[in-house]
Amino acid sequence: MSQFPASGVLFANDRKQSDKQPDYTGNLEIDAETVRDLYQQMQSGGDHPKVNLVGWRKTSKSGKTFLSVKVSVMRERTQQAVTRYQAPPSNDLNDDIPF
Questions:
Q1: What's the structural domain count of the chain?
Q2: 40 within domain boundaries
Q3: What is the pTM of this model?
Q4: d(Cα 6, Cα 74) in Å, to the nearest integer?
Q5: Residue range 21-26: mean pLDDT, rounded
Q6: In this structure, is residue 42 part of a structural domain?
Q7: How far apart are CA 41 and CA 55, in angstroms?
Q8: Does residue 76 register a pLDDT over 70?
Q9: How confident is residue 51, by pLDDT bands cut at 50, 70 and 90?
C-alpha cells in the first residue's frame, strides 16, 4: 500500500453562472494501488471499473467549506465478509438433573 491513499477535495463552485455548470470542483490524486486495481477490473471484463469513495465536510483555514474525499480499491463483498448473527451453540445435554 502506498504512503498516501488516493484522496482529493471538492470546493463549492463560487463562479457558477448557470445550472449547466458544476456545483463543486476539485481534484483527485490516485495512488498506484488504485490504478492497478482499476486496470485489473478492466482486464477482467469490467466495462465500468469502480472504487470506493468516502467524504468529510471540512472548513479551510480561510473559512471556506469543502469536501475532503478518499478513494480505496473496490472490494467485492464475499460471504465471509458479511457477518450475520448466529446463535451460540446449545449446551443442552439432555440431562435429567433439574438445575
A1: 1
A2: yes
A3: 0.62
A4: 13
A5: 95
A6: yes
A7: 23
A8: no
A9: confident
Whether the Cβ atoms of residue 23 and residue 16 lie closer than 8 Å to each other: yes
Q: What is the DSSP letter of 86?
A: -
Residue 70 CA to its chain's centroid (Å)? 7
Which domain does 41 fall in, by range? 7-73
| Residues 6 or more apart in contact with residue 9 via CB below 8 angstroms | 26, 27, 66, 67, 68, 69
Cell of 78: 464475499
**Is there a domain that residue 28 lies in?**
yes
CB of 74 within 8 A of CB of 51? Answer: yes
Mean pLDDT of 23-46: 90
Of 29, 32, 69, the residue nearest 52 (C-alpha): 69
Which residues are within 8 A (CB) of 69 and not within 5 positions of it... i.e. 6 or more apart?
A: 7, 8, 9, 10, 26, 28, 53, 54, 55, 56
DSSP track, 29-44: E--HHHHHHHHHHHHT
